Each structure stands twice: as structure tokens, then as C-alpha cells.
């Protein structure tokens, strides 16, 4: 090759413009993420070493303050997902494999419409409709199933408990999870569905042997996206939840943990000095928690890559 | 194990479109019957009516009767799920379940039909089915590896093992070798020859040498033109179809003059 000149590919302007803009768009993701991370870290550092003398909202030190908030955030999001995952898989399967075509498209459109409702509206609905509606049920649960640790009393008089917040969050994450599950289920290769049917599978058995295993990684992605939204959701939780900052698994009492995002929204207007840094530091913790959840989900998906159907 | 199939005046429709018209034929137990004909002549569609797999396509329906040992598959109280347990199917492209291991693939149908099976029975059935599909020696050391990691021909034999594991009466094969190389094709053809001892086999093929090699009887389907229904033109012993057919169109097709 040393004797002949290397052949140079002809540079076409269209290629250059397109590759340049694609590289620019791709790097903007990293720049934005880095900018947010740097802001959070720089502003947070003083808060990590503050105590109640430096910042009036701290009970003792920063970790004692953020601990219950992290617990509340993860607990509310977990409750939301426990309710949302089966429902969204059910809706998605109904749309993709059970409903007549016309009904399926209408239903898909309605679910998408749910995603367009602003979160403050969900908050209003949670306070105005859901909480009063579920309060009698909560009383009944405490009276009759109070021996079950999660349902311990005394019951909240307003119904604005962590479980209500979880229900509102579940409704909010439902559209995105349903949309992803539906798309993945629709992509199940016809070959695999027919393979199951030809073995004498009923419709449900076909779904169990062909559709659900194929859609497994999609279901996990959908859950992670839903979890991300539930972890970060601010307005609806701030409005619905009557929080007291306790760490408790009880679902139905008026003693409820708050969430990081809702706490920032509620405390920020009156914050000053070091308190602002403390709140930003809780934001950094939320960032880390969300990041960890995403990484965990990716690890789950990659664990059985050979069996994923991608090969 | 194997059963006679009788088809009487069968019409197949996709919604309003008549895809296959007026097919009547009888298939003997323990024989191999090949369906040949140009693309789009309805032979795959007709094959699928033999285990009601055409019903997977919305709007597909049939008129007429398909009798397996005298029982009409299309009686109102017949469950298509039970039909498919008796009449197994192997598809054009190998389709092992990608999320399952080789072992799980073979046992998939049994797990559906009879979810409780003891481990020793399962292992015995696994070996028997894989031996029946001439695959045991190649995969016995990697039964827990994914089925999608095998070669195309091995995957197709895995699909055959999966089909025979539920002990069907009849096995339908829809161009089972069209995605395979000649060596793998030969392996499948040898297998068909052996399976004939136990099963009634119906195979759709575009490869006329294959039809003449493996089948006892051959049915030639043709289509008058685009948009017209497919018809059964001639059905006879394979040697007759390939040496001395009674219809000119059959002779033209098998001698390669058209199609």
C-alpha cells in the first residue's frame, strides 16, 4: 500500500452536513447531562457538611433529612408500579391481541390522551375526587384487615395517604407503559405465534409462550420509564399527599413520608441561604436514585441476552 | 398413530375472496403426500385448512368438509385447539421459540397439553423426540443452550422434534426446506422417509425433485390467473404425476415448461 496513494473517498456536502448535525445532536445529550450534573454537584457540596445551625430545615445533618425523603420517593413509586405494571400489560395485550381492530385503535387513542393530561390536573383529581372516594374503603380496610401490617391504623380522615398518591402516580405512568408494551407485543413475530398455535396452544397459552417472553425486555423498559416518571413526579404528589416526613410502610394513616420532588416544590418558595443548597442536594440524590434504577433495569435486560430473540 | 384424511368439496375464502375452490382428495395413513404448484395457487392455504391454522388470519373461512378418520374438523363443536394437537405443523422458516432452550422448545407443546409431567418422563420424551428428528447426537451436550443458536437445518429439525413431541396423528410441512442448504435438506428428507412409518405426512414444496424423492402421492394445484381461485388439477401416484400425467398443465409444470 505504501507505493500507491491511499484512495480518498469523495466528500459530498450532503454527507458532511448530515454527519455534522448528527454528531452535534448526539453530543448535546452529553453536554446537557453534564451541565445538570455539575450544577447539582457544585451546589450540593456545602449541604453535605451542613448541620441544623447552618440550615434551619435540617433536623440534625443532611443524611437524616434526605433519608426519609428517599424512602418516601421509592415507596410511592414502587406502589405506583405494583399497580401500573399488571394493568398496563393487560391493556396492551387487550389492544394487541384481543380487541377487534376498530375498538383497539380507539382504545389506544384514549390511552394516549391520558398522557396529555397535565400533572396538576391529576393532582386536583386526586384531592377532589379520588381521596374522598377511597377514604371509606381505607376505613373498612383498617377496621377489618388492620392486623395486616400495611393496613395498620389509625385511618386517615382525608384519604390523602401514600396509597392515594401511589394510585395517582399509577394512573399517570399508565399511558407510557401501555404504549411501549403495546408496540412490543405487536412486534411479536407471527412465526412464533403460529408455532405456539400449531402446537395446540389456546390464545392465552400462545401469549404466554410467544408474546410475553418476546416482550420481556420491552416490559422492563416500560417499567423503568414509568418508574422514572413516578420517582420524579412533583406536582401531583405535592398536592395529594399530606406528608409528615415519617418513615413508615403503613399505607392508610395520616402519617406519611414525603417524596424528594414534592418536598422540593413545597419547600423551595420559602427557602433561603443554606436551605436552598440542602434542597438542591436532595435533587442530586434523586438524580442518583433514578440513575441507579435505570442501570439495574439494564442489567436485568442484559442478563439473558442470548435468549432475547435478537439472534 | 396415523390417520386417513378425506377432503370433500372444500372452498377457502379470505373474507369475500375465494382463494381455493372445490378441492376433494383422500390421503392415506402412513404416506407422504406432496402438494406442488406455482406460487399463489393456494397449496399453502389449503394445507393450513387441514389443521385450521388458516383461522389465524382474520376473515379466513372454509366451506366443505375435512374428515380425519371420519370426524369433520369443521363441526360446530370441534375446538381448533384440539385439532392442532392432533395435526402438527412445521413451517417454511425454522421458528424455535427464541427465549427457550433446546429442551424447553421440544417440551413446549407437552407443557401446554399436559402441564404436569415428571422429570424422568420429560427427559425420556425429550430424547425420544430429538432422536426422532435425528438431532439427538448433535445437541445432547447442550440441551440448555438457546434453540436459536443452532444452524438453520438443526433449527428446522428442532421444530420437527417439537411437533412430534406432542404425538400428533398427522404432520403438515409448509415448504420445510426452502430456507435450508442442500445438506440440511437431505437430512430432512431422510427424516421424512423415516417418519412415514408412524405419521401421515403432507408436504408443500416448490422443489419438484424433492416431491418425487419423498412423496408417495402428489397433488398438483394451479391457478387460472391473478385474482382467480386455486384449483386441484390432478392428484395421483407420484410416479404417475412425474412420468405420465393425465392433464397437459401438470406435464408442462413438472417438465419445467412453466411455473
From TrEMBL, chain A:
Keywords: Cell membrane, Membrane, Phosphate transport, Transmembrane, Transmembrane helix, Transport. It is found in: Cell membrane. InterPro entries: MetI-like, MetI-like_sf, Phosphate_PstC, Phosphate_Transport_Permease. Residues 70-297 form the ABC transmembrane type-1 domain. Pfam families: BPD_transp_1. The keyword Membrane applies. It is a multi-pass membrane protein. Part of the binding-protein-dependent transport system for phosphate; probably responsible for the translocation of the substrate across the membrane. Belongs to the binding-protein-dependent transport system permease family. CysTW subfamily. This is Phosphate transport system permease protein. It comes from Agromyces humatus. The lineage of its organism: Bacteria, Bacillati, Actinomycetota, Actinomycetes, Micrococcales. The gene is pstC_2.
TrEMBL record, chain B:
The keyword Transport applies. Gene3D superfamilies: P-loop containing nucleotide triphosphate hydrolases (3.40.50.300). The keyword Transport applies. Keywords: ATP-binding, Nucleotide-binding, Translocase, Transport. It comes from the Bacteria. GO terms for molecular function: ATP binding. NCBIfam families: 3a0107s01c2. This is Phosphate ABC transporter ATP-binding protein PstB. It comes from Agromyces humatus.
Amino acid at each position: 500500500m505504501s507505493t500507491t496513494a491511499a484512495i480518498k473517498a469523495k466528500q459530498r456536502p450532503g454527507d458532511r452536513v448530515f454527519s455534522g448535525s448528527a454528531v452535534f445532536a448526539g453530543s448535546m445529550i452529553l453536554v446537557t447531562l453534564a451541565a445538570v450534573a455539575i450544577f447539582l454537584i457544585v451546589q450540593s457540596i456545602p449541604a453535605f457538611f451542613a448541620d441544623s445551625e447552618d440550615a434551619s430545615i435540617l433536623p440534625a445533618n443532611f443524611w437524616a433529612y434526605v433519608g426519609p425523603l428517599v424512602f418516601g420517593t421509592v415507596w410511592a413509586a414502587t406502589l405506583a408500579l405494583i399497580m401500573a405494571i399488571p394493568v398496563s400489560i393487560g391493556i396492551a395485550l387487550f389492544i394487541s391481541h384481543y380487541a377487534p381492530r376498530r375498538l383497539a385503535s380507539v382504545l389506544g387513542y384514549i390511552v394516549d390522551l391520558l398522557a396529555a393530561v397535565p400533572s396538576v390536573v391529576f393532582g386536583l383529581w386526586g384531592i377532589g375526587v379520588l381521596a374522598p372516594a377511597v377514604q371509606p374503603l381505607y376505613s373498612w380496610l383498617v377496621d377489618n384487615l388492620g392486623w395486616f401490617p400495611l393496613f395498620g391504623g389509625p385511618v386517615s380522615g382525608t384519604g390523602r395517604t401514600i396509597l392515594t398518591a401511589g394510585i395517582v402516580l399509577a394512573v399517570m405512568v399508565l399511558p407510557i407503559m401501555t404504549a411501549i408494551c403495546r408496540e412490543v407485543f405487536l412486534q411479536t413475530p407471527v412465526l412464533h405465534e403460529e408455532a405456539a398455535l400449531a402446537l395446540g396452544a389456546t390464545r392465552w397459552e400462545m401469549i404466554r409462550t410467544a408474546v410475553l417472553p418476546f416482550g420481556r425486555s420491552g416490559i422492563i423498559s416500560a417499567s423503568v420509564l414509568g418508574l422514572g416518571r413516578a420517582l420524579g413526579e412533583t406536582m401531583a404528589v405535592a398536592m395529594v399527599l399530606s406528608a409528615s416526613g415519617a418513615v413508615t410502610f403503613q399505607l392508610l394513616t395520616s402519617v406519611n413520608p414525603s417524596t424528594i420532588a414534592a418536598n422540593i416544590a413545597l419547600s423551595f418558595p420559602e427557602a433561603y441561604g443554606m436551605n436552598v443548597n440542602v434542597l438542591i442536594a436532595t435533587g442530586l440524590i434523586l438524580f442518583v436514585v433514578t440513575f441507579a434504577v435505570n442501570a439495574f433495569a439494564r442489567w436485568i435486560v442484559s442478563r439473558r441476552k442470548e435468549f432475547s430473540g435478537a439472534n | 398413530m396415523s390417520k386417513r384424511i378425506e377432503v370433500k368439496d372444500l372452498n377457502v375464502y379470505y373474507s369475500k375472496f375465494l382463494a381455493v375452490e372445490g378441492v376433494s382428495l383422500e390421503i392415506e395413513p402412513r404416506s407422504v403426500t406432496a402438494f406442488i404448484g406455482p406460487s399463489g395457487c393456494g397449496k399453502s392455504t389449503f394445507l393450513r385448512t387441514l389443521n385450521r391454522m388458516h383461522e389465524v388470519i382474520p376473515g379466513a373461512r372454509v366451506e366443505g368438509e375435512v374428515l380425519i378418520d371420519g370426524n369433520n374438523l369443521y363441526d360446530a363443536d370441534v375446538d381448533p385447539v384440539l385439532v392442532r394437537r392432533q395435526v402438527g405443523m412445521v413451517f417454511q422458516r425454522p421458528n424455535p421459540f427464541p427465549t427457550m432452550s433446546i429442551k424447553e422448545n421440544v417440551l413446549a407443546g407437552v407443557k401446554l397439553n399436559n402441564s404436569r409431567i415428571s422429570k424422568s418422563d420429560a427427559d425420556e420424551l425429550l430424547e425420544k423426540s430429538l432422536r426422532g428428528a435425528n438431532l439427538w447426537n448433535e445437541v445432547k451436550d447442550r440441551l440448555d443452550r438457546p434453540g436459536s443458536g443452532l444452524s438453520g437445518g438443526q433449527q428446522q429439525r428442532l421444530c420437527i422434534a417439537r411437533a412430534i413431541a406432542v404425538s400428533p396423528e398427522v404432520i403438515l410441512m409448509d415448504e420445510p426446506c426452502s430456507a435450508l442448504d442442500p445438506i440440511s435438506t437431505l437430512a430432512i428428507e431422510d427424516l421424512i422417509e423415516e417418519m412415514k412409518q408412524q405419521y401421515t405426512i403432507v408436504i408443500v414444496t416448490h422443489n419438484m425433485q424433492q416431491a418425487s424423492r419423498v412423496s408417495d402421492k402428489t397433488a398438483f394445484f394451479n391457478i387460472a390467473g391473478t385474482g382467480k381461485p386455486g384449483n386441484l388439477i390432478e392428484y395421483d401416484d407420484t410416479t404417475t404425476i412425474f412420468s405420465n400425467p393425465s392433464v397437459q398443465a401438470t406435464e408442462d409444470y413438472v417438465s419445467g415448461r412453466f411455473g
